[in-house]
Amino acid sequence: MSAEFQSQPEEYAEVPAEQASPVEESSAPSEEAYSGSILDWIVSNENVQQSNRAAHRWDEFMNADNVREKLIAWLGKIDGLSKKSIVLRLNADVAQIDQWLTDQLNAVLHHPQFQKLEASWRGLEYLTNMVDDEADRERVIIRVLNASWKDVERDIERAVEFDSSELFKKIYEEEFGTAGGKPFGVMIGDYEIHPNPTRNHPHRDLDTLQGLAGIAAAAFCPFIASASPTMFGLDEFTGLEHVENLRSGFDQAEFTQWHAFRKTDDARFVGLVLPRVLMRLPYETFDARADGFSFREEVGGRDRRNYLWGNASYAFAEVLIRAFSECGWLAQIRGVQRNVVGGGLVSRLAVHHFGTDRYGVAPKSSTDCIISDRQEAELAHLGFIPLTRCHDTDLSAFYSNQTVQKPKVYEDEAATQNAKISAMLQYILCTSQFAHALKVIARDKVGTFEDREAVERFLNDWIHEYVTPDEKAKPATKAARPLRQAEIRLRDDPGKPGSYRCTFKLWPHYQLDDLVASIRMKTNIEGRRK
């Protein structure tokens, strides 16, 4: 903002001092009250008397009927001042007000609680913007549950078992477990998981996470959240770049519960992403603003904490939505190919650039730390999903998608490979898609066949429509028939006459690191409820 006089000088010249609005002598302030500008009095507001004088000056300024009165109320004594001097003083005051507003806005924007709120809303916007095609809107459904981590923790704690929680009812019973329901494909949690309670985070995250894992496994709906820097003994992820050995930190006794959780079967339905991602660019000066306010967000500092960082699970959701929109199959969600927007490539994050003579030639990382290739492999081994920067580009990518579960090691090499592939999120997601369809189809058919063998035969005929044994088949064929082999087995449920326990094994085409293995899952199949 700046002060300008165009038509005002004439008006100013027509109003001599003796014509100014008179002030009653009893209420007139002393000459000292007009010794400086109104801003000087506001800033030096040290006692009640000065506060009253500043308030009086402000009332005079707001109620003044002409330019001269307003100038006297704002600047104080103006006798002998030239037009240029008045404009300079007004511009100085405007600049001071701009600076105060800038400082206040920066303080609000960079407050941790406000940053968390803004990052969550921008993350949701980021997610919905991924569904930008009319056909995608019919296939990709986003539902929002507004629940704090404290709410989720309380729900899990109060439930005797995870399947008696309110969240289980919403995710499983009201959709996957109900005829006509639409099973959830994945849960994206805007939460950061901590290994242990702290003063700033007094929650037992791993207890809550174990309950969420049970819900995710029952509903075949993986839960994706973010890992906190405290997992690595850090306050911010920026310090991760200087950690030489990530594994050594997990040998501490405080990670006993973490290791126990990684050994559970349900842990393969949980994915923890890191680090944080840039949710928007810093605000820059915008000269075309109607109000003339010159605001520039201050994001300087070595730790980069003034940038708006958000949960990386939204970036992983981008990969999932794109893969599902392309072929309806969630296998191609890792790695990158040159000149191809697909796989694990994340292309929609905000990108800030270094201040170079030619803008845009030196992009900064869209993550709050840069993870090396060695660290990426180490983090995947520890049960995390790292997002890494693509070198010399403004893009990022997921090169692995390991679930939290630690694969078991067996004497039999084939069994060990099965354990490894069963702990990869891309195959858990693919298997979950078949589990959803399998249960819905079988639920409608139970009771219409004479015996268990007939149901089993029908289900095997159905799933073989998605099988092609040709390893050299074209990508389009593999997208339509994503399985190399499949097998479904049913057995009677002794406790529920007319219901079956289902075990299905799937051999997907898309393999990682030349692993050749199968995925084995179990579920219960009941007839349609009357």
UniProtKB/TrEMBL annotation:
Cross-referenced Pfam families: VipB, VipB_2
Regions of compositional bias (Low complexity) in chain numbering: 16-32
NCBIfam families hit by this protein: VI_chp_2
Region (Disordered): 1-32
Residue intervals of the TssC1 N-terminal domain: 92-405
Tree of life domain: Bacteria
TssC1 C-terminal domain boundaries: 415-525
Name the UniProt record assigns to this protein: Type VI secretion system contractile sheath large subunit
